[in-house]
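Re: the pair you flagged

First of the two:
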Amino acid sequence: MGNGAQFLITTAFDLYIMAVILRLWMQLAQVDYFNPVSQFIVKITGPVLNPLRRVFPTIGRFDIAAAFLACALAALKIFILIHLQMGSFPYSVLNLVLAALQNVAVTTLTIIFWVLLARAIMSWFSQGQHPMEFVMAQLTEPMLSPIRRIIPPIGGLDLSVLVLIIIVQFIRVSIS
């Protein structure tokens, strides 16, 4: 199989897995449902998630259907890529599940990194009025506020985003 086909398969799966992870994260952080960014994520994930919700319940704010879907899509992506490359799938189901869980964890940490980076860059230029900036603040504040209690802003400079980026990257590199 050519690199182009691998790229397209990986990209298509990864983009949808990211949308599902964002949906789960938005529910956990109780992001404003009526925000245009939230509505976009809900509309692209709803057709697949809504039927799964009949099978997998939500526990508190944790959407088991979204977590299952992200893991199932990651497993399917890995299965397809290995099967196309080798002509068969020489690994056990347990190995596939573990690889899918690792893939979802790394993808989640990657999303957190990019949301933090985008939020930091947007804070330099925008005045807090963009709907995407509002969603990013709602997503990241629960992680940043405990860091700010330990390391308060120094001379007006908030280092909590930098500290969280370093922590996220350390964990991501450790589990990759």
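Second of the two:
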Amino acid sequence: MQVAFYAPLKSPDHPVPSGDRLMARQLCTALSAGGAEVVLASSLRSYLPDPDDQHAAERLAVAAEAEVARLAAEWDRSAPPGLWLCYHPYYKSPDLIGPPLCHRFGLPYVTIESSWSSRRSIGIWADTQGKVLDGLRQAALNICLTRRDQAGIAAAAPDAATALLAPFIDPTPFLALDPAPDPGRLVTVAMMRPGDKVASYQFLAQALALVEDLPWRLSVIGDGPARPQVEADLAPHAARIDWLGALPQAEIAKTLARAQIYIWPGCGEAYGLAYLEAQAAGLPVLACATAGVPEVVANGATGLLTPAGDVPAYAAALRRLLTDSSLCKDLAEKTRPHILARHSHTAATQRLANLLAPLLEPT
């Protein structure tokens, strides 16, 4: 059965790497592995970063109407898909295409990682929030990647249908390498862009200052427009940092396999696919207990989580990991089984197929 896939924030074929693009691609792969024929319905990016930019909202509305007309004409000529699946609609990037098409053609509408927050209802976002909420209510199913998102949907739309799907990766490239940790070698993988990413790097710089007396070296994988800011924030530790830039997945896997601890505070992190990759490579994780991070890192089992925003607590946990090799080893031994049992591509493929099968059956 054909599934029309749409990611309004960032299409799977978008040229800029990100966790959103990676998750979109993985969902398409999992759907295909589960027997669906996945068709990228549209590449229209419905991103509205400024709540006061009414002109941008008006231009987007016109573009969305054109896409609805284009797809409707195409489906009239051939046949509509079995369902429409929208990945990650939220207040800055609503789905303006799927709901009207599903209403017109009588198709099941499904969302994955949809979110809604009443505090974002300002300016043009009040309107886009309303459209997201309408979509949640219209959806035959809203698939949530975290319990936090599921609770948010339940609060906004109590009658909306929801189900959980754990965040996942294909762990194969990371499982293929045997860990050979270099004692004291820390590693982080993160884009360098303004906002939460820069905030996490700044948090990390402050925490590292509190463990200067210990032997460690940090590998930083990532790049982006905020790199000068990140390098400036970490300048006091420059002699201990290896700037590796953006790397292909195979090189990321090799770098992770040679490290002892994966460190990333995760300010504002929804959940973080990089945490899953690190655990698949056999690394214990040190992060903050932010948003959905506790749902991908098992505190005390595959890593340590400290209170969000608490730099001294994070530094103390890092000191503990750097000075207690047996603790690091115990945590590392549980990481790969954790990923295979809860966060693998195989598990997600089966879960998705089970969730969507009733909606794809002919009526």
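The mean pLDDT is 94.

-B.
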